[in-house]
TrEMBL record:
PROSITE patterns: GNAT. InterPro entries: Acyl_CoA_acyltransferase, GNAT_dom. Coiled coil: none annotated. This is N-acetyltransferase domain-containing protein. Residues 18-168 form the N-acetyltransferase domain. Pfam families: Acetyltransf_1 (PF00583). It comes from Thermophagus xiamenensis. One of its GO terms (molecular function) is acyltransferase activity, transferring groups other than amino-acyl groups.
Length: 235
């Protein structure tokens, strides 16, 4: 599985790509700093293993690192997560993330045909890409309950929010592709995209405000309001 476009080659990573592990991790870390958002940090060995197991997608422009994503199965292969999506800054805005995610999606479907595919994201671009692949926004209760997966969130700066809500909500939105359902990919109408954008901003407002003053009695009301809004928007 190799796709080439605009001189950028996207492929399933293998041992020859192990030297890119450092730049992959530093690009992910740097992007999280710029966005001021949380990430589930991965160590070099974890990424190395993904590459060795043929569970990672890498994009290169010549020898230059352009983008990356990996897949991992959870809950006895009932679920597969597509994680760690990153596109190096100079290659953004050319549809590269979309192509990487599509290849990760195809790889997930091939290796785990019966698994539900999911991802957690704070980004509108990823919500958009996922929607086009047939993912739907879901509550966290629909995602894997595999403790190991959720442990990955421990290194995120927003982990306290996840714990405070008994793992029901966080700044990330869960999205799921269920192969058993008719997940017809649908182009996202602009109106729907605006709803996603407002939803992400609203979550940040509610949770980060609640975080700043955890004794505030209004917090509970805000969280209840959030739950109702989620239900109204996405169910
Ligand atoms: C998010 C990211 C992966 C997007 O990469 P990219 O190659 O520029 O994305 P694409 O060009 O494939 O764009 C895909 C779609 O998202 C839209 N998009 C891209 N960046 C966007 C942004 N910052 N805000 C809103 N929409 C955006 C594009 O317009 C495109 O939609 P279209 O098909 O309707 O034109 C890249 O900006 C990045 O690596 N950011 C830092 C890491 C990150 O946020 N990772 C995701 C963690 S969940």
């Amino acid at each position: 599985m190799i796709k080439e476009n605009n001189n950028i080659k996207i492929q399933i990573a293998s041992d020859e790509h192990l030297p890119y592990v450092d730049i992959i991790l530093s690009t992910i870390e740097q992007a999280a700093k710029v966005r001021g958002t949380g990430i589930a940090r991965r160590n070099p060995d974890y990424i190395r293993n993904k590459i060795k197991e043929g569970k990672a997608i890498i994009a290169l422009s010549g020898d230059e690192f352009a983008g990356f994503c990996y897949i991992e199965s959870w809950g006895h292969e009932k679920f597969v997560a597509n994680s760690g999506l990153i596109v190096a800054e100079k290659f953004r805005g050319q549809g590269l993330a979309k192509r990487i995610k599509r290849m990760a999606f195809e790889l997930s479907r091939k290796r785990y045909p019966n698994a539900k595919i999911f991802g957690l994201t704070t980004g509108l671009a990823v919500m958009k890409i996922n929607s086009e692949l047939g993912y739907k926004p879901v509550t966290f209760s629909e995602l894997t309950d595999d403790e190991e997966f959720w442990k990955g969130c421990q290194s995120c700066v927003n982990y306290d929010i996840l714990m405070r809500t008994n793992r029901k909500h966080c700044l990330c939105t869960g999205m799921l592709f269920d192969p058993a359902k008719d997940n017809k990919p649908e182009p996202l109408p602009p109106k729907r995209l605006n709803v996603y954008g407002r939803w992400l901003r609203f979550k940040q407002f509610v949770f980060l405000k609640a975080n700043g003053n955890s004794k505030n009695k209004n917090n509970k009301n805000k969280r209840n309001l959030l739950k109702s809004l989620f239900a109204a928007l996405f169910t």
